[in-house]
Write a sequence for this structure.
């Protein structure tokens, strides 16, 4: 503990000498400027598409104050002539619009139509009574359907539509739902007024709701807002940005030690690697926590809840970047590792959160929890564990590997990446308890596998449907086979295993570990996520013994082929194992080529 | 000049050797992929029409009440399956059996107001999709009801195409794809320069008969070449996918101007702050500021790429050339500034 504090103190000292005197001043100025500009931009509206469409309008035509349109006032003949020259994309003559057949003109018409339609709503809501302007109101009701396994008791249909039995019967022959439930008019009027208030206010981002429409909510078709929690996602992302800046110093701390050859001195001192890593991490971790608290205070959030959500996120990012720090070989390496890490982490955290409230799959990102927190929505412990569990596991995995590979020889060699990786795995495995460590290693890889497979789902969206499913199946199987066999393959490569029987036994252990982990995860996720085609394809359920058997068969095949032919043929072995696994999966799903 | 090219080719080789460029391209591919999920997913919400056109959703709607209503006709117009029910229990059974996706209950109009009820599957992402698909017909029906009451809504039948995909692609994705390589280029210049400084190899290089500015120039050129290669590949890839970039020469020239400006700035930062850590930090903040400030320009660099790529009538080479002016100034003071920091470096 004392050692950790000593290293942490040293790290703080190093950090503060980076920015001393003039450069500290410069940094503060620059950071402030960046912040204020960010603020200006965020309140400035759609700056990206400024002047994107050229619109011609008759004098006295509708006023257009959307930045996307650059507007010219033109007489009818001039307008049409310019439209033909492609000098404008669309010409609006009072109530009529003229546009060309080409794409740009068509899109301009679509965009202008939406804009004008919105203005029309403002106009009619000002000119007419609320019940003439908005004569259609739709009450949303939810009912348990066949395909989901929700346990929430919901009302029956006749209860929903026949709520007011006292209302007069208007259609005698329509069975027992003749009652027309007419809630007092002012009830739905209030809903209309509330939504109209949002319409007029252009400056703020959309008001967000928990779901697109909640139960019993009154919806006005023309006033429906898209259910994207953009503002809350941005807000949640605000938390992540400072961590990215802080982390630069954490990773570069390692490279400096390397360059100054101080690492060897540090390693020869009676300090354990874990103490060095934790000591270096500690100050930056504290800075990140402070940042989270400050941001939460600024946005008037709930501090304990924000910490509960973002602590795992911070740990996750530190875990990922510890990997970056340990694996890079040169400066350029580090830049690209860091860039990939930033992109992947951002994408992984932000994009799922965009769908919070729409699809339960969004819970794979803890930012979804933050979005819900800022919407004043509760979430359960199950959701919390589902989204933060992988974060903690990634951190633990990264720490375990980091501590074990933390020696000078590994840190300062320049071998190719895959070799460094296999070396790291070899070092990470505890050779005295090899069975247990293979078991745990495979178990810990599962979150990484799941994250990879989920990203694969997203990639697959690019492809048309049947082939997307095929690609997904193949990728999922290959990733699983790699995860199950790397541990054993690395042992084979380093000639740790003396007989094929040993390889077989460990393959068995690894396959069982993977199977158990997968089922555990499945149990967890099914209670959070409602099933979709893709998840069903990934984790086919019901049969318990067959999946275990196929995991064992495929993994032992990979390991034995690798043992027989040598580690150089690992790729070939993976392909063989995947082929076996894939054949099984296809026969289970019943897909025919 | 020979020394210049040998340094350039050395830099390019070192990038190739470390497969870093593969990383960069992979990242960009990732961004592009994610944008397509955005197109399918997010954009549909902003654009109720597009969900019907772009996706082939087979939706079965159960209708209770006045099923000869105009609303059911609108549903049928959109190729949705409409099934009429007279009995709510029957409809509920069909819903629970999964043979219909949603139930619409249409009562009579009271006091000019129609209070419809919509039943959606509970706890299901399908509920959102159902609502998105029904939104179009519902809006049309709303306008129909308004018309009955003498409220005329203009511009409703203007036509046109759902624009969100188009706008998103040209105003965000294409500019990001064209500028991202430039940001990476700047970062690479910093790594390359600060590595030489921190490893004390710059002094060795300078003892050879090459000047500091030659070395820096070569490093900058190498990173520009790499970034232009990426831009070119992106343009090509987009073309293959059916997204034509108009004015390709101007678009690429403009990306090159930006890449050069950024690389020069990055080189200055790395000379000024010397160690990689601080340089990268300052560089990333400067890029953030520059991107922010650029939005105040008209057209901003992002807008410029977007409008050039869509073949804007009012933008031409002259507008692109405006951006060369700061570049020339920067290029002119660069050798002076770099010489100034040189004695401190070595």
């Amino acid at each position: 503990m004392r050692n950790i504090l000593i290293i942490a103190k040293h790290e703080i000292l190093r950090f503060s000498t980076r920015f001393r005197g003039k450069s500290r001043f410069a940094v503060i100025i620059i950071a402030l400027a960046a912040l204020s500009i960010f603020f200006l931009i965020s309140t400035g509206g759609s700056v990206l598409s400024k002047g994107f469409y050229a619109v011609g309008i008759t004098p006295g035509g509708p006023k257009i104050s959307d930045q996307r349109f650059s507007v010219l006032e033109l007489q009818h003949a001039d307008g049409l002539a310019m439209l033909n020259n492609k000098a404008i994309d669309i010409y609006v003559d009072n109530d009529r619009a003229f546009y060309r057949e080409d794409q740009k003109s068509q899109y301009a018409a679509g965009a202008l139509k939406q804009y004008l339609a919105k203005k029309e709503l403002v106009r009619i809501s000002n000119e007419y009574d609320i019940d003439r302007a908005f004569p259609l109101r739709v009450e949303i009701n939810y009912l348990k359907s066949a395909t989901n396994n929700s346990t929430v008791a919901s009302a029956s249909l006749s209860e929903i539509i026949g709520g007011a039995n006292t209302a007069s019967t208007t259609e005698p022959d329509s069975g027992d739902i003749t009652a027309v439930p007419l809630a007092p008019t002012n009830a739905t009027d209030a809903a209309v007024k509330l939504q109209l208030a949002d319409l007029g206010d252009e400056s703020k981002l959309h008001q967000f709701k928990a779901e697109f429409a909640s139960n019993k909510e009154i919806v006005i078709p023309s006033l429906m807002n898209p259910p994207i929690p953009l503002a809350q996602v941005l807000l949640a992302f605000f938390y992540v940005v400072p961590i990215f800046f802080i982390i630069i110093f954490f990773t570069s701390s390692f490279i400096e030690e390397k360059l100054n050859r101080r690492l060897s001195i540090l390693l020869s001192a009676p300090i354990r690697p874990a103490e060095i890593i934790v000591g270096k991490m500690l100050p930056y971790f504290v800075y990140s926590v402070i940042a989270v608290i400050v941001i939460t205070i600024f946005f008037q959030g709930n501090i304990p809840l924000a910490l509960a959500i973002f602590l795992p996120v911070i740990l996750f990012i530190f875990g990922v970047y510890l990997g970056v720090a340990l694996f890079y070989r040169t400066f350029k390496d580090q830049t690209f590792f860091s860039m990939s890490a930033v992109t992947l982490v951002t994408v992984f955290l932000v994009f799922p959160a965009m769908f919070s409230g729409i699809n339960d799959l969004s819970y794979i990102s803890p930012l979804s929890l933050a979005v819900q927190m800022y919407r004043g929505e509760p979430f359960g412990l199950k959701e919390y564990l589902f989204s933060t569990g992988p974060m903690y596991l990634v951190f633990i995995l990264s720490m375990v590997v980091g501590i074990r590979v933390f020696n000078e020889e590994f840190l300062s060699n320049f071998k190719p990446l895959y070799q460094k990786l296999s070396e790291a795995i070899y070092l990470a495995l505890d050779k005295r308890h090899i069975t247990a460590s293979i078991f745990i290693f495979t178990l810990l890889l599962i979150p990484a596998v799941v994250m990879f497979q989920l990203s694969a789902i997203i990639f697959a969206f690019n492809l048309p449907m049947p082939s997307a499913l095929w690609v997904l199946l193949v990728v999922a199987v290959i990733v699983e086979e790699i995860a199950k066999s790397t541990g054993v393959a690395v042992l084979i490569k380093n000639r740790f295993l003396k007989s094929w029987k040993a390889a077989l036994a460990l393959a068995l252990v690894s396959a069982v570990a993977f199977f158990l982990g997968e089922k555990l995860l499945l149990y967890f996720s099914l209670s959070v996520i409602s099933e979709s085609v893709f998840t069903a394809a990934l984790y086919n359920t019901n049969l318990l013994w067959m999946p275990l058997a196929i995991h064992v068969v495929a993994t032992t095949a990979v390991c034995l082929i690798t043992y027989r032919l040598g580690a150089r043929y690992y790729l070939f072995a993976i392909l063989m194992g995947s082929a076996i696994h894939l054949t099984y999966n296809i026969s289970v799903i019943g897909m025919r080529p | 000049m020979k020394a210049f090219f040998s340094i350039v080719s050395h830099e390019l080789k070192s990038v190739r050797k470390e497969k870093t460029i593969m990383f960069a391209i992979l990242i960009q591919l990732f961004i592009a992929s994610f944008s397509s999920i955005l197109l399918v997913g997010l954009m549909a919400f902003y654009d109720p029409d597009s969900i019907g056109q772009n996706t082939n959703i087979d939706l079965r709607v159960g209708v209770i009440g006045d099923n000869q209503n105009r609303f059911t006709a609108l549903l049928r117009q959109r190729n949705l399956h409409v099934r009429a029910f007279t009995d709510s229990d029957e409809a509920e059974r069909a819903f629970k059996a999964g043979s219909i996706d949603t139930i619409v209950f249409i009562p009579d109009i009271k006091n000019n107001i129609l209070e419809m009820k919509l039943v959606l599957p509970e706890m299901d992402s399908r509920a959102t999709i159902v609502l998105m698909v029904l939104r179009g017909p519902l809006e049309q029906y709303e306008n129909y009801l308004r018309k009955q009451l003498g409220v005329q809504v203009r511009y409703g039948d203007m036509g046109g195409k759902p624009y969100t995909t188009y706008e998103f692609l040209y105003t965000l994705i294409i500019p990001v794809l064209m500028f991202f390589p430039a940001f990476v280029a700047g970062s690479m210049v910093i790594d390359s320069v600060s590595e030489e400084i921190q490893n004390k190899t710059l002094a060795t290089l300078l003892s050879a008969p090459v000047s500091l500015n030659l070395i820096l120039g070569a490093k900058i050129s190498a990173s520009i070449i790499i970034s232009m290669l990426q831009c070119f590949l992106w343009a090509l890839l987009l073309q293959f996918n059916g997204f034509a970039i108009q004015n390709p020469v101007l678009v690429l020239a403009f990306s090159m101007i930006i890449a050069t400006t950024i690389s020069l700035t990055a080189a200055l930062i790395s000379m000024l702050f010397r160690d990689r850590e601080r340089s990268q930090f300052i560089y990333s903040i400067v890029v953030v500021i520059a991107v922010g400030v650029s939005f105040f320009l008209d057209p901003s660099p992002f807008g410029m790429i977007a409008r050039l790529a869509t073949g804007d009538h009012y933008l031409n080479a002259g507008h692109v050339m405006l951006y060369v002016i700061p570049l020339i100034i920067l290029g002119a003071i660069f050798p002076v500034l770099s010489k100034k920091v040189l004695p401190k470096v070595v």
